[in-house]
Design brief:
5 strands, single chain, mainly alpha, 60% helix, three-stranded antiparallel β-sheet, 10 helices, 260 residues, flat
Length: 260
């Protein structure tokens, strides 16, 4: 029902995408944000006649671009080219700083574009803390900041792993870490790159864990061995399907008396 009212649809996608972000289901969050932003991009002209709708959509559009930028930095993956260009235009500099692991940029974007939080706990009205209204937000910010801190080195590690097979000590030296500290990051990388992803089922009970990393590795003694896990797209099936469609169209046109 929410899809019949554009404002409701945008708001629903915003909160669902944010919920996925906080649940560390980054792949689903990216899918939600990218799809609704693409919808806004294609239908924005429809709302220009109504001022309040246009302003509301612009505001939601800005919020979701920022949250998508955060989510992509936490879990890099491919998105629609037009959305990617918009992100680079709006938050290119901030994304560069986030990629380098600057936590202040993450916290700045999160603080400005996250929803308003309410506490489910009734306060003690006899002794209310002056900043009680900020506590729900600070709690969510702490959870988010802890997750960012845990993943601070992962994007850099991933970029090095894509290059070549190398000794553990050598790669640790590139990252200014001891060998022991670097070995600790390996299970963290494996764990964080495996997301719970919504599948084609009807309910969220049909979710499954999938690895979205384009590289995989294993350690044999002191050597890191890299395996490329990116699956090549099968273009043959796509072209075969299109050929069959055109053949069916030609047969239909002949029956109607038209030249193919």
């Amino acid at each position: 029902m929410y899809s019949h009212v554009p404002e409701c649809q945008l708001t629903t996608y915003y909160y669902v995408g944010f919920a996925y972000l906080m649940m560390c289901r980054y792949q689903d969050g990216i899918w939600v944000f990218a799809n609704i932003l693409l919808y806004i991009q294609r239908t924005k002209n429809m709302f220009q006649r109504t001022t309040y709708k246009y302003e509301m959509i612009n505001k939601q559009n800005k919020h979701m671009h920022a949250l998508l930028a955060i989510t992509l930095m936490m879990h890099p993956m491919s998105i629609d080219e037009s959305i990617h260009l918009q992100l680079q235009e709006k938050y290119g500099d901030k994304m560069l700083h986030m990629q380098k692991g600057v936590p202040q940029v993450y916290e700045e974007l999160f603080s400005y574009f996250c929803p308003k939080f309410l506490s489910p706990v009734v306060p003690n009205y006899d002794n209310v803390h002056p900043n009680y209204h900020k506590e729900p937000f600070l709690q969510q910010l702490k959870v988010f900041s802890d997750e960012v801190q845990q993943q601070a080195q992962l994007s850099t590690i991933c970029s090095f792993l894509k290059l070549y097979t190398t000794p553990v000590a050598k790669l640790a030296g590139f990252l200014d870490l001891t060998e022991q500290e670097f070995r600790i990051q390996f299970p963290v990388f494996k764990h964080k790159m495996k997301n719970q992803v919504w599948t084609s089922g009807i309910t969220t009970l049909d979710d499954e864990f999938q690895s979205a990393s384009e590289v995989d590795f294993y350690i044999d003694k002191d050597m890191i061995h890299i395996t490329d896990t990116k699956v090549a797209r099968c273009y043959g099936n796509f072209f075969t399907c299109q050929i069959h469609k055109f053949e069916e169209l030609n047969r239909t046109l002949k029956k109607m008396g038209h030249r193919p």
